[in-house]
Amino acid sequence: MAVSGKVIQHVLVAHCCQQDRKLSTQYRKDCCIPYRHKLLPYIRGKLAWTDISTMQLRTFSKFNRGIVYCNAAPSATIIPSVDKGVFLKLQNGSDIRGVAVYGVEGEPVTLTEPVTEAIAAAFAAWLLDRKKPDPSKRLKVSIGHDSRISAQKLQDAVSRGLAGAGVDVIQYGLASTPAMFNSTLTKSEDFLCPVDGSIMITASHLPYNRNGFKFFTDAGGLGKVDIKDILERAADIYKNFTDEGLRDAERKAAESVKRVDYMTVYTSDLVAAVRKAAGNVERPLEGFHIVVDAGNGAGGFFAGKVLEPLGAITSGSQFLEPDGLFPNHIPNPEDKEAMRAITRAVLDNKADLGIIFDTDVDRSAAVDFSGRELNRNRLIALMSAIVLEEHPGTTIVTDSVTSDGLTTFIEKKLGGRHHRFKRGYKNVIDEAIRLNSVGEESHLAIETSGHGALKENHWLDDGAYLMVKLLNKLASAKASGVGGGSKVLTDLVDGLEEPGVAVELRLKIDQNHSDLKGGSFREYGEAVLQHLANVVNSDPKLQKAPVNYEGVRVSGYGGWFLLRLSLHDPVLPLNIEAPSNDDAVKLGLAVLAAVNEFKALDTSALNKFVQV
Asked: Which Pfam families does UniProt cross-reference here (predicted)?
């Protein structure tokens, strides 16, 4: 029987990585991993079984600090040539993203273990330049990861890269992205905090074969310029790798890496925040039935470690166990299937509230008792209502695709100011910080994607903290004698005008088309936008937004459209909202008429929408 080697590789590597994931999860329960399977190396197109390596973990502290030293057995290393361009292509805005395991046709692995070691060493060098520590003081860096099947091997590679660069390494295992940032702020000798820098291994909601890194210091997440700097350093470091140097890094990691259950600290802080909001009541959510959908990502802790200590009933919660193959649905609060799953869980269990997280818990959404989704514009409206109660008149910063109805709600009903900015959670957060620096008070920066950051929480986009703000509202209402379950939340968004039709279409740019004339897709996209802006200026039925920071936003036919250039990809996303399908089609036709002459632009999605 003939069997494809590629398929075997996919199944075996996925299975072996999943073994690591289960073992890592078990460690979090038992504080000890007696052993772990070593990944199958893929050498010269062949699979090879190797002996099972052992990871000796010995308990460190008689003070019950939960710290463990890890001695990992050494492994052979093959170092293929990788040029700087390959490293730079791993940048995804303020993150690093790549393919970490084989298994998807046409997607070769780009985030190898040696590449990962180089990136970690580069972060250490970047951190040393920024912190300039006393020569007698070693920097500390924490590492956490989500549930992805490649998490364990990348965590080990990051540890080697950091240790080889002379940095103390603290592994947190399964963790959330917000927790990793918090570890740079927490003051606790027992948990070796604060750390000087932090690395989260995640690729958010992307498919199982992807992975990546987010980096933090106590000043927040690193930006695009910093990521480019790190990748350039990594390329130089990689060129100078030697077998001896890599073995030395592995020896240093084996001798010095520690493990801490930091999620205990993070979840305790969330619990304390809700208790404080309810007047220091121990179980302020007693009687509330709240279900959680973690999508088999890293957010399963929220049910047992946050809600249950607060007194909530969590039966009916689903997909809490980490599984990096994501067998149930994509862990993404913007995904329709994911939102249907949490809605069903709420209705089937007659719950008061449903909460859903993305893979690494920096995004979230909710569902009320009636099955009404509280995501996108509704979540922004809800958070705006809560924040404006606390800070009347403050500015709410959002991304560019928020609705006109949201602006009316924030400004006319809530008395705040809506500052619509660009797509990209870092853009939105940085703009809120900038506004505060020039004297315009802002306490909330939030995207339709579910990324939301509050000034009171160090401008960290934390999906769990967003949900804590909702829980605070439930708890304080209960303490005041107001019943009705999550109706108190639903009532806060009463009056939000919502469109009859809302669509997002993606118009792709063919980078190989002759119409680009040797230019970049970005230059071509900008030309499309400029032409559209000129056409709109001559159409009396359409009006360009007087203040706009991204793309071309136009009102007309009772609705609006926004055509913009994707932050990273050769795509022009088109958002249309209108009172009716006929009005939405009219807006679509206006766009189509303006862009039809650009032959490298694939307008098939728009053609289908307007039925041309």
From this structure: PGM_PMM_I (PF02878), PGM_PMM_II (PF02879), PGM_PMM_III (PF02880)
Q: What backbone torsions phi and psi does residue 461 show, to the nearest 5 degrees?
A: -80, 105
How many Å apart are CA 30 and CA 403, to the nearest integer? 48
E strand or H helix at 213, and its extent?
strand 210-217
Residue 458's identity, in one-letter code, is H
Residue 407 parent element (H or E): helix 404-408
- Contact 542/590 with Cβ under 8 angstroms? yes
pLDDT digits (tens, 9 = 90+) for 326-373: 999 999 999 999 999 999 999 999 999 999 999 999 999 999 999 999
Q: Which long-range contacts (CB under 8 A, 24 or more apart) does 38-45 make?
A: 38/75, 39/13, 39/153, 40/9, 40/12, 40/13, 40/16, 41/76, 41/78, 42/9, 42/13, 42/102, 43/78, 45/5
**pTM for this entry:** 0.86
Written as one string, the DSSP assignment of 520-535 is -HHHHHHHHHHHHHHH
**68 bridge partner residues:** 59, 259
Give the contacts of 534 (CB within 8 A, at least 6 positions apart): none
Strand order in the sheet with 417-420: 417-420, 395-398, 442-446, 452-454, 460-461
